[in-house]
Write a structure and sequence with these properties.
This protein is mostly helical. It is built from one helix and no strands. 42% of the residues lie in helices and 0% in strands. The longest helix is centred in the last third of the chain and has 20 residues, at 23-42. The termini are far apart.
Length: 48
């Protein structure tokens, strides 16, 4: 085992809080996908 003399360890994190203006598109698509799965699997099919 070895150590480096004269080295000061720094503690920091690289987190950053930002605002993403396009995140509502992702949420809207996810909600539409859930609604589509619900309609596909839980509604009765009708013959045209």
């Amino acid at each position: 085992i070895f150590s480096i003399a004269g080295y000061n360890q720094r503690y920091y994190t690289g987190l950053q809080v930002t605002s993403d203006p396009g995140v509502w598109v992702v949420y809207a698509g996810f909600i539409m996908m859930i609604i589509g799965c619900f309609i596909t699997f839980f509604m009765s099919h009708q013959r045209l």
